[in-house]
From TrEMBL:
PROSITE patterns: LRAT. It comes from Pseudomonas lalucatii. Keywords: Acyltransferase, Hydrolase, Lipid metabolism, Transferase. Residues 34-134 form the LRAT domain. This is Lecithin retinol acyltransferase family protein.
Length: 167
């Protein structure tokens, strides 16, 4: 789907709608939108703050060292992958409030894969909830978690000379 206006995907899990967003089109997602992009073995999450910028918990998304909450370009956030907008009913905070909440944590460096990751961060910004459906899914399905771990390990072993991970 390459429309500049995302269309909700009705087959998304748990009554959550996802819409693929054409990053190269002219339309922008709403301020405070919860963005998702794929990485090797998992999905990476961020909050859209306008002007093609995203605040996200860098975590382990680009190196072997846990990164801080930071504001980056949409291009850097997407890392050459499609971007989706996550829609859930009744956010506690409107777009401007979510942006303010996201920016209030820039520089924080307390990333924890299972308890304080990029999805926890986005759900806190939008809903005031500290939760990660992705982590819950891996805890319920340990074989899926093992598979993800093996893919991440192979990615770590293929890292470049600069210490940056190969996508």
């Amino acid at each position: 789907m390459n429309s500049t206006h995302p269309q909700p995907q009705k087959n998304a899990p748990q009554a959550v709608l996802h819409a693929r967003w054409d990053c190269n089109g002219g339309a922008e997602p709403p301020l405070g939108a919860h963005l998702i992009t794929s990485r090797t073995g998992y999905f990476h999450h961020g909050i859209y703050v306008g002007n093609r910028r995203v605040v996200h918990y860098a975590g382990l998304s680009g190196s072997l060292h846990a990164g801080p909450v930071e504001e980056v370009s949409l291009t850097q956030f997407a890392a050459d992958n499609p971007v989706w907008i996550r829609y859930r009913a009744a956010p506690r905070f409107d777009g401007k409030e979510a942006v303010g909440r996201a920016r209030s944590r820039i520089g924080e460096c307390r990333y924890r894969l299972l308890t304080n990751n990029c999805e926890h961060f986005c759900n806190w910004c939008r809903y005031g909830e500290h939760r990660s459906d992705q982590v819950r899914s891996y805890l319920v399905h340990p074989l899926a978690a093992l598979n993800m771990g093996l893919r991440l390990l192979s990615r770590l072993l293929a890292r470049g000379d600069s210490g940056r991970l190969v996508a």
